[in-house]
Amino acid sequence: MRLASVGGPKWDSTDPAAPRRELTGGIYFGKHDRFYDEDGAGANGAAGQRAVDVMEYREFEVERIARQAFEAARKRRGDVTSVDKRNVLETSRMWREVVHRVHDEECPDVQHEDLLVDNAAMQLINRPGDFDVVVTENMFGDILSDDAAQITGSLGMLASASLGDGVSLFEPSAGSAPDIAGLGIANPLAQILSAAMLLTYALDMGEQAVLVENAVAHVLDEGWRTRDIADANTPADKILRTAQMGDKVIAAL
Q1: What integer is the mean pLDDT of 124-134?
Q2: pLDDT tens digits, 164-202
Q3: In which band, very low, low, confident or very high, does the pLDDT at 3 lie, cut at 50, 70 and 90?
Q4: SS3 label, residue 164
């Protein structure tokens, strides 16, 4: 399953030696205000605080991520699920209209469905294997990506990509984890699977990416684990350190 969201880092068609980070769309990057001692904002009409966060999208932002999602699906099973909250939010109503238009005009060969975000969160847990590419706005994607990570057992298993029209960025979803740097306990599989995504989406080397993904699956099928994905039933001799897990994947290639 791949989950794509708009509003986070996007490396666009710029000089790769000096990439520019574009932060666009969604409540995370809208206007944020907090007002103090405002009449009527407190209990029983007293003065109190009022906070405002603005969610805003422009049509081209939704077009861009929808196009990326449909193109990604063409390299996978060919199925896109668009997640929104159109029964409440005006941004979601526009989102759905734009996603449908991009699908109908540019990618009619790709299967497409819509889900409301609350239903999507439930279905992601109940039937994760039915999802291929999930496309949604930034805050929904932030929540659903952590939701999806727990299906695998750990954020250390979740690869990610910020896909742009030119340069793209591939990295583990959990980030760099500096608090455990040098301890040998980090799970390297998200990094390895991010490299597989790079092969697929940046280098058009899908066959090689499948080899990497299959190697990871083989190692896990053999019962090898890092500490974060081990449980009470995992034998102690099956729990590996970071470098050892990397060596197992290399040997399986």
Answers
A1: 90
A2: 667 788 988 877 778 888 999 999 999 999 999 999 888
A3: low
A4: coil
Query: Considering 37, 104, 109, 118, which one is annotated as catalytic?
Result: 118
Catalytic residue among 12, 28, 79, 228: 28
Active site residue 118: yes
CA distance 116 to 197: 27
Q: Is 146 a catalytic residue?
A: yes
Buried b (16+ CB within 10 A) or exposed e, 74-86: eeeeebbbbbbbb
> How many C-beta atoms lie closer than 10 Å to residue 27's C-beta?
19
AA letter at 136: T
The reply to whether 142 belongs to the active site is yes
Which positions ≥6 away from 74 have C-beta within 8 Å?
107, 109, 110
Is 57 tagged catalytic?
A: no
pLDDT of the residue at 51: 95
Q: Which of 104, 146, 165, 221 is catalytic?
A: 146
**What is the CATH T-level fold of the domain 1-24+58-154, as seen in this structure?**
Rossmann fold (3.40.50)
DSSP code for 169: E
Please calculate the CA angle 132-209-162 and round it to the nearest 5 degrees: 60
pTM (global) more than 0.70: yes
Structure tokens that stand for 138 in this block: 């930034």
Reply yes or no on whether the pLDDT at 132 is more than 50: yes
Which entry of 142, 147, 228, 247 is annotated as an active-site residue?
A: 142
Q: What residues does 249 pair with on adjacent strands?
A: none
At 40 the three-state DSSP class reads coil
Q: Which of 57, 84, 85, 201 is catalytic?
A: 85
Q: Is 165 a catalytic residue?
A: no
Q: Where are the domains of the chain?
A: 1-24+58-154, 170-253
